[in-house]
Task: structure prediction
Amino acid sequence: DIQMTQSPSSLSASVGDRVTITCRASQSISSYLNWYQQKPGKAPKLLIYVASTLQSGVPSRFSGSGSGTDFTLTISSLQPEDFATYYCQQSYITEAFGGGTKVEIK
Amino acid sequence: QVQLQESGPGLVKPSETLSLTCTVSGGSISSYYWSWIRQPPGKGLEWIGYIYSRGSTNYNPSLKSRITISLDTSKNQFSLKLSSVTAADTAVYYCARRKAEWYGGDPPGWFDPWGQGTLVTVSS
Result:
């Protein structure tokens, strides 16, 4: 099985900050890495797929990069509506999600 | 736009079978992959499995012996059955459409959109 490790598990940031979340796979997954945002009591929402493709309707302050085993999700300027939990997901071999990163208000 | 809605009992007794249905509206179920994902209270996401519109399935190996996912194209629905449930199966269950770069076999994919989720509690 491929294990997905996200870091940090939580972070505190202020509006306007640049935020970077990392996801590491236990083996190469090519570019088959997706990112989701989940707010409390809501279903996850797709942000980025295949490592760097922005889902339609998602603000351009979100970006993704990486390939192989190391990936990042970057929020260029954190907005109030971005406080949420973020999950990565690989689909190279079956499916697996990372443990999540909670972005909290500083 | 495509919308998904889960339905089914909110309470299931231990050792019984959990049964959920996902109704797809705004588009045909006769394409794409259709998935189930769950989230125990306060925890992360766990992929359960998916079914392709042509009937092939792919299940999480850790749950495979207990899962059946099926499709009813006449009703635009797909369903999940999870047998021999325990308290560890208590979770919010989501259905989602799985899109992929190509279709047929088990290609890499991503989940969009998702249903709102339904909480299933396993308790006597």
Remarks:
- The mean pLDDT of chain B is 95.
- The radius of gyration of chain B is 14 Å.
- The longest strand of chain B covers residues 91-100.
- Chain B touches chain A through 20 residues (CB under 8 Å).
